[in-house]
Design brief:
about 60 residues; alpha+beta
Length: about 60
């Protein structure tokens, strides 16, 4: 259940894009995003680096929280 900081996440469209990217790696993943803190919490069986890579490939700047 990794947490990430996505510094360029700014709107609900970003959240949808991040969720889509994560669920391409793990369709059962549950994504919880907080726009104010720019944090994304993911409940997933997939490894954190794979999730971070998916968000990065979707065009977001990702760091471990």
């Amino acid at each position: 259940m990794p947490d990430f900081v996505v510094s360029d996440m700014s709107c609900e469209a970003c959240v949808r894009s991040i969720t889509k990217a994560v669920q391409a790696v793990d369709p059962a993943a549950v994504v919880a995003a907080d726009l104010a803190s720019k944090r994304v919490h993911i409940d997933s069986a997939a490894p954190a680096p794979a999730l971070a890579n998916a968000m990065d490939e979707a065009g977001f700047t990702v760091a471990a929280a």
